[in-house]
Amino acid sequence: METIRENLAAVHAVMEEACKKVGRDPKEVTLLAVSKTKPMELLKEAYEAGERSFGENYVQELTEKIKETEEDPPYTALSGISWHMIGHLQRNKVKYIVDKVDMIHSVDSLRLAEQIEHDAEKKGVIANILLEVNIAGEESKWGFTAAEGKEAALSVAKDLPHVRVRGFMTSAPYTEDPESNRVHFRNLKALFDETAKLLAAEGAPDAAAFDTLSMGMTGDYRVAIEEGATIVRVGTGIFGARDYSH
Known about the structure:
Blueprint (H helix, E strand, L loop, with lengths): L3 H19 L7 E5 L5 H9 L4 E4 L2 H13 L10 E4 L8 H4 L5 E5 L2 H14 L3 E6 L13 H14 L3 E7 L12 H20 L10 E3 L6 H6 L4 E4 L1 H4 L7
Parallel strand pairs: 1-2, 1-8, 2-3, 3-4, 4-5, 5-6, 6-7
Helix pairs in contact: 6-7
């Protein structure tokens, strides 16, 4: 059975190949290890193999893991972790994580962004967020439409001083053929570029900080990198299949 260290090495090799194919610097792309439902023992293995960026989907699990790295040996040795909230976030849960994560990927409404502003101001922090765009128009997915995403980014940048909009995130359709998602990644990159120009033209605060495109998961991250992803979210490819039985 392959180890997490071997899996991480394989993922990084694919990332480097994808960057080389399109002339990108591999340093431009961050691997986010999606550790949802995985025990701390496995997260520790990934950490010891060099991984420092971890993504969680559930607020309770995220806060418990952060607490373990702060209070519970042997996990207190896991210093310098960059925690990311990547799952659907309810407004009443924002206060639990707004000052504990480096980025919230899944901001799918202006109401949620406004709640993040409220809680970030109370905690005295600036919250880095990505706006979730349902670029493929799937009925089962959360997120802004492409047209809404651009305007939402401008609104957040101009009106919410404790929220820094860093870019866009999407979850592409599940598919056996990663090439079928290329069009969605390409469309989101185009929207990202248009929005960056809009923010700069409008003189939006922190326009230069609009620099992040979170797209691509275990099945299609190679294609996502080729189309401009700066963060890829890989779980199964690192930790193996998830167990949802408990």
